[in-house]
C-alpha cells in the first residue's frame, strides 16, 4: 500500500508560477539571494566593510580575504556584501518616490484631460529627450551627494514612467460603466480616482516597479562612479568600481571586478523579475510573445 504526500498549497502555487514564468522564478531567486546578503550583512561579513587595514593593502584574493583587499586595505568581500544594503536602500525608496509622485499625476491627467494633461505630457516628453543621467548628475552635484538627494533625484526622474503607465490605463477606464455609475451617484472626483479607478489602473505601474528598481540601482552606481553619488568609504558598488578602475592597469583586478559582478547580477535579477511580473500581470503581453 503506497501513500502519496500532498504538497502544501503554497508549494504548488510557487511551482505553477515557476512553470508559467521561468524568468520570474530566476529573478526572484537572484533578488532573494541579494536580500539575504543585505539582511545578514552584519553577521556574515568577516571584516568591518569601512575599516582600513594598512598592513593588507591590495592583498590578492585568498586566505582570510576571499576577494582580496582594496587600496585602503578594506576587505572587498565584506564591502560587496554590505553594498547590497545600499543598493536596496536606494532602489526601494526611489521607486516609492516615483510611485507617490507619478501615480496621482497620471490619475488626474488621464481623468481630466484638457490643457493640464497636454502640458504634463509635453513636460514628460522633454524629460525623456534630455538624458536622465546628465540631469541626475547636474542635480545631485548641485544639491550634494547625500543618500537623500540621490533617492529624491532618481525617484522624481522616474515618476513620469509611472505617470504615463497609469494615465494610459485611466484613459481606457474613464468611460467604463462602473466609472460612469460612480459619477452618476454623485461621488467626488477624489473618490472616483482613488477608490474606483486606481485599483484597476495600478496593475501596470506595479509591474514596472522591479524594472525601475534596476534602473535606480544602475543610475546610483553610475553617479557614484562619476564621483557625485554616495562617497567612499561607504561600501557602494559604483564607488568601489571607480576605485578598482585605477588598479586594473597595474594588475589588481579584484578591486573593481567583484563589485562589478555584483552590480550586473542584481540589475539582471531585477530586470528578470520585472519581465516576469509583466508576463503574469499583463495577459496581452504574454499572448503577444507566444
UniProtKB/TrEMBL annotation:
Gene Ontology annotations for the cellular component aspect, listed alphabetically: plasma membrane
Location within or outside the cell: Cell membrane
Topology within the bilayer: Multi-pass membrane protein
Top-level division of the source organism's lineage: Bacteria
Main location: membrane
GO terms, biological process: peptide transport; protein transport; transmembrane transport
Transmembrane region(s): 21-44, 86-108, 129-157, 253-274
Pfam families for the chain: BPD_transp_1, OppC_N
This protein's name: Peptide/nickel transport system permease protein
Source species taxonomy: Bacteria, Pseudomonadati, Pseudomonadota, Alphaproteobacteria, Acetobacterales
